[in-house]
Amino acid sequence: PGDPEAGELGLAAVPGRQAAFRQALEAAVHYARAVGCPRIHVMAGRVPLGTDRAAVAGEMETTFIENLRYAADLLSQEDMIGLLEPINNRITDPRYYLNTPHHAAAILEKVGRPNLKLQLDLFHCQIMDGNLSRNLETYFPLIGHIQIAQVPGRHEPDSPGELNFPYLFDLLESLGYTGYVGCEYAPKGDTLEGLGWLRSYWESRGLQHGGTSKAAK
Question: Is Cytoplasm among this UniProt entry's keywords (predicted)?
Answer without folding.
Answer: no
